[in-house]
Structure formats: C-alpha cells, structure tokens
Amino acid sequence: MSDAEDTRLWHPFADMGSVRQAELVIDRGDDVWVWDEDGRRYLDATASLWYANVGHGRREIAAAVSEQMGRLEAYSAFGDLANRASLELAELLADLAPMPARIFLGAGGGDGVDTAAKLARRYWFEQGQPDRTLLVSRTAGYHGTHGYGTALAGIPANRAGFGPQVETVQVPHDSLEATENELARVGPERVAAVFVEPVIGAGGVYPPAPGYVEGIAALCARTGVLLIVDSVICGFGRLGTWYGIERWDVTPAMIVFAKGVTSGYLPLGGVVVSEEVAEPFWRAPGGPVLRHGATYAAHPSCCAAALANIAILGRDGLLERGRDLERPLLDALRPLAGHGAVAEVRGGMGLLAAVALTDEVLERDPGAVAQVALRAREKGVLVRPLGRAIAVSPPLTVAEEHFGLMAEAIEHGLGALAG
Ligand code: PLP
C-alpha cells in the first residue's frame, strides 16, 4: 500500500478522494496468486476482474504474443485487410459457437455490447423494420460502460447522471411474465433485442431460475426479438463451456464475449453473430455495409493471445472446471449464510459466487461491503466488493483447498462489521 503518493491515475469505478493516496499496487502474478509491491502475497479470488481464467504468468501466452509482435504487431482490418491470427481466431470461435456464425472482433466487452446493439438495430433496418430500435435489459444486468451499455445498465447508479441516452427498457431479471408484459406494453414490433447475461455477474451473481433462459428464448422466438447473450463473464470456462450459454438448449442471435477469451493477457472482445443476422450484410457485393468498428479491431497480437489462451483451456482440461467446481465453491461459502450480517450466499452455477449482506447492515453502513473486502485482504485474499455483496470468481486453475481460504477471509471481513 503506497500511502504517501498522490496518484495521477484515475481508477475506474473508484472513489478517487479515498483512493488517491491508498492504492494497492499489484506487481506480479503466478497462477492463482498475485503479489503487491511490498512483496505481500494474495489469493486472486476474483481472477482479477472475472477474467484471468487460465491464471497468471503463463509464459506460453507471452511467447505467442511476442512471436506475433515480432512478425506483425498490428495492422488494420478495415475493408479487405486481414491478418492470419485474426482469421484463425475467427475460424476457431465460429467452430466453437453453438450456432452457425461469423465473428466480429473488438477490444473488450463493452465494445462488443455496443457492436451487438448497433448491429441489432441495423439488422432490423435492413429487414424493412426500422422501428425496431428499442433495447431491453434486465435489472441487475451489467453490460459495460460504452454508450449502449450505459443505457442498458440494470444497476441504476451506472446510468444515473449522464443525461439522455439511447432508449432502453429494464425488466425484472427473474420474471419471464414481467418481460412478456413489458414487450406487450411497448409493442414487440418496436423491440430490436433483449440482452441477457446467463448468470448475472457484476450485478450481484444471480443464476437464472430453471426454465428462465429457455423461456426468454421462446419469448424472443415468438415476438421476433433478437436474443443477445452477454457472456462476457460467463464464457471461456466460467460456466464450464465455451460460451456459457450451451448449458441451455437455446439459439442466440448473437453472443458477446471478452475477458476469458484471452484471460486478460491482452484486451480482446467481440460478437458471435448468427448467420441469420449476418446474412443481409454478407449476401452479395454492393450490399449494406456495417459502418462500425474500431482501430484495433482484429488486432493480431491480441488474437495471438486468444489463440494461445484457448489452446491452454482445452489442453489442460480447464474449461470443464467451471462446472465441476461450482458445487464445491458454493459448499465452501454456504456456512457464511449463518452470519448475522449475511442475507444469502448465491452461486452454484459456474465458478462464481456472492455473499450478500443484509438490508439492515447496508442501511446502517453503506460502506460495509468495501470494509469486508478490505479486511479480507488482511487474510491475504482479494475478493470483489459489489453493490450489496462480496463476489468471488477465481481462476479455473484454483484448487478446492483455496475455497476454504476465501471463506475464512470473508468471515474475517464480516467480523469487522459492528454487530
Ligand atoms: N458485459 C458484462 C456481462 C460484463 O461483466 C462486462 C464487464 O465486466 C462488460 C460487458 C463490459 O466489458 P468491458 O469492461 O471489457 O468493456
């Protein structure tokens, strides 16, 4: 902890008034462990920001990136330009997808969300239904902080204070009936797409009720609305499959991915676009052009990191661990539900879980979650403070014995709360 310096770095989602002289500077990482600049070791119980799926310090990813950089660090993919790493990655990601698809590549999750949102609206424009512009998201949903993602925010604080935004509607994350009613109220012929996280992550870790995902897919099919699955957290092993959504028998129109696709070794995200949605744009020369995409789209060095990362996920059998470990993780944390400050422990679907505090505790002390997370650090465990819960989502290489450390550290943190 560097106490004295006044940082020049503006941290995302941070109370800079507090953080400016109290940063935790992470210096290095190895597998599930990271060290700060003072040499203190921490269990990375959150895989950084839900992304270090293969763990830290994988030399082979660094080597693959280095090789790519030595050959061609970057080059535009606008127009007819391409590079081999992005072609290979697109081929692989399409092969792994649960539906016939094309792949649009960008820099991260929020970038992918904005791509999917714009593509949905543009698709309907090409279908002669230009009024289908409305986007639907779920309460507690998180879709990044770009323009559309901000408008789609199901965490109200993430939308507040930014002025007028793209038109969206939010529906209760756990109610099919409310979603159906809302579509009927606004008129499905006005709705372009529904955004669904298979398991809600940043909004508090909410696995869907049995039948929910299938129900939303059926509702979309009935109303013509596009189902956009946001698997930015859920993909690449977090739920035990490539895109998370394979756990349900549904066919999305698009899947947004990021994070685990490179395990964060370099920034990359994108959209798996079903053939159906791609078709108007791919049909024939002279057709509509999607005038969208960023400078670093299909960046070869980032694609090389993704290819090496995906190879590790497959080779080391890590993909399945997201599912195999979901019960042991929940079982290890469940006893915390007995603590007076804890409302519930959520998880059991994929390698992520949350310990939610009670309304009383949060009303009495709005900083309670942050305090628990800070105290957990004293026990050498980095957990993630969400709005009303402490979340964990370790690398897929985590051992079951580490779950005990997480539970102990959170229990220690809970001890800090006035009874
Ligand atoms: N969608 C989901 C479900 C996410 O959890 C996140 C980030 O946590 C995003 C989108 C945004 O991704 P990024 O931060 O890479 O822009």
Tag the structure with descriptive keywords.
15 helices, Aspartate Aminotransferase, domain 2, Aspartate Aminotransferase, domain 1, four-stranded mixed beta sheet, seven-stranded mixed beta sheet, 419 residues, 2 domains, alpha/beta, binds pyridoxal-5'-phosphate
What does this structure look like?
The structure is a single chain. The chain has two domains: 133 residues, Aspartate Aminotransferase, domain 1, CATH 3.90.1150; 256 residues, 3-Layer(aba) Sandwich (Aspartate Aminotransferase, domain 2), CATH 3.40.640. The chain is an alpha/beta fold and 419 residues long. The relative contact order is 0.16. The strands form three sheets. It has a seven-stranded mixed beta sheet with strand order 4-10-9-8-7-5-6, sandwiched between helices. Strands 1-2-3-13 form a four-stranded mixed beta sheet. A hairpin with a 6-residue loop joins strand 11 and strand 12. Pyridoxal-5'-phosphate binds next to helix 5.
Give the topology, please.
Elements: H1 16-19, E1 26-30, E2 33-36, E3 41-44, H2 47-50, H3 59-71, H4 84-96, E4 101-106, H5 109-126, E5 134-138, H6 147-151, E6 168-171, H7 176-186, E7 191-196, H8 212-223, E8 226-230, E9 254-257, E10 269-274, H9 275-282, H10 300-315, H11 321-324, H12 326-333, E11 342-346, E12 353-357, H13 359-364, H14 368-378, E13 381-382, E14 384-385, E15 389-392, H15 400-414
Parallel strand pairs: 3-13, 5-6, 5-7, 7-8, 8-9
Antiparallel strand pairs: 1-2, 2-3, 4-10, 9-10, 11-12, 12-15, 14-15
